[in-house]
Amino acid sequence: MYKKFLILVFLLLLVPVSVQAHTTLLSSTPAEGENIMEALKEVQLVFGTKIEEGSTMSIEGESGSFEFDRIVVGDNSLVGTLNEALPNGSYRILWNIIGEDGHPIEGEITFGVSIEIEEEVTPAVVSEKTEEPEAKTTAASETVAETQTESDSNIFVTILLVLAAILVVYGIYKLLLKKK
């Protein structure tokens, strides 16, 4: 009886670990919703766990698809190098990875490109340039906040699952004692 109880406890404690095995996107360059002001040469995605070979990504824009010249799969990152500059517009990075557990995971990141063409500088343009770093900083801080919230919620879910498992085991134990 005691051995069965220990085996049941062990199995229930393994469940939350396996539920949290899927990886999540921690950060990206460019960040979600970011408006790039310079030519984009490299895209970097950082994930919560190791990713496997065969992971890939591409960029889709208003004027079509753009392929990476080279994609490097690191331990927990995916880095793509572009061979040409993207024209101004809205884009989506479409990524498909194979997580450490072998499960395929996909997602997308939207961003924009607004590279100013050098012309005569007027006072109105100068005032707009002054405001742009604030918008860029705000977008970056929002991305960091979202990543932190996602990480915190994963820990919270794990704790809740462990507590639920303990309560279930305790309830089963009490029922078994009652039957004797």
Folded structure, characterized:
Strands 2-9-8-4-5 form a 5-stranded mixed beta sheet, with no helix packed on it. Strands 1-3-7-6 form a 4-stranded antiparallel beta sheet. Helices cover 42% and strands 28% of the residues. The chain has 2 helices and 9 strands. The longest helix has 57 residues, at 123-179. The model is unreliable at 125-152 (pLDDT under 50). Helix 1 packs antiparallel against helix 2. It is elongated. With 180 residues, it is of the alpha+beta class.
State the gist of this model.
The protein has 180 residues and is of the alpha+beta class. It has helices at 2-19, 123-179, and strands at residues 25-29, 35-36, 42-47, 56-61, 64-66, 70-73, 77-81, 89-98, 104-113. Residues 125-152 have low confidence and may be disordered.
Keywords:
four-stranded antiparallel beta sheet; 180 residues; alpha+beta; five-stranded mixed beta sheet
